[in-house]
Amino acid sequence: MAVKIRLQRHGSKKRPFYFIVVADARAPRDGKFIQKIGTYNPLTHPATVLVDRQQALEWLANGAQPTDTVRKILSTKGVLYLKHLLRGVSLGLFDQAAAMTKFEEWHQDQEAKERARQEEKMRERRQSRQRPPVNRTKPVKAAPPAEPEHTEEQPSAESNPE
Question: Which residues contact 26 (CB under 8 A, 6 or more apart)?
Answer without folding.
Answer: 2
